[in-house]
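Marked as duplicate of an earlier ticket. Keeping the data here for the record.
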Amino acid sequence: MGSFAECVDIHQQFAAPLPDSWSMQDAASLPLVALATIQGFRDRASAQPGQSILIHAGSGGLGSFAIQYAKRVLHLQVTTTTSSRNHDWVQQLGADHVIAYDQSNYLQCGQRFDLVFDTLGPPHTARSFEVVKPGGAVVSVMGPPDASFAKQVGAGFPMNLVISAASLPMRFRAHRAKARYFRYLTESSGTQLRELNQQLKRGLIQPVIDRVVPLAECPDALDYLARGRARGKVVISIGNAPKRQHAG
């Protein structure tokens, strides 16, 4: 995690076939955002068709996938936040309602949601409990870790205490809102990627790539991401893309 390399050795249980029509760049843009979304929406929050969801930062790499998956696969009613310049674009991805943060505040939209997907972290994690319905869930990839996160990383007793203390404000807000809070570590899963393959083949999900840059320009690409202006994923290209290989 957190590095760039020409190749990586992984167990086959973490891999899945690439759809025939997809390029290597398409493939690179998919697994992390797909698994984060599936494991948050389906495995933890147990999202059901017809429920409403607020997705923070819908034009980003994670948000642009989450909108498509929420709308076209889970059949949720999708509201997202983004800048006004991306308003029409995220609607094309599948958002039913768009809140342009440079024109209005989602806290004042008068809506409550069954699910809130926090991709931004504090202070948005805490504020998400102001717009979640009783019985709903705030799912976060950036907020303070919860108890299940501690189990995922195999935290010992001292670290468990630290994590428990760090998550206390979110647990208090969840209790007050009569909602659930999930902060998790995305796990590799070839099984879930193979399931997703069927949706990709049906055209329900499309790759969203802002740009593909060579490894030598990686620092500039990371700086571009940090400014929060990317539409979708930024992919690093290392040399020539390898040819497809079939297991013998």
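See parent ticket for discussion. Strands lie at 52-55, 77-82, 97-100, 113-118, 132-140, 180-183, 209-214, 233-237.
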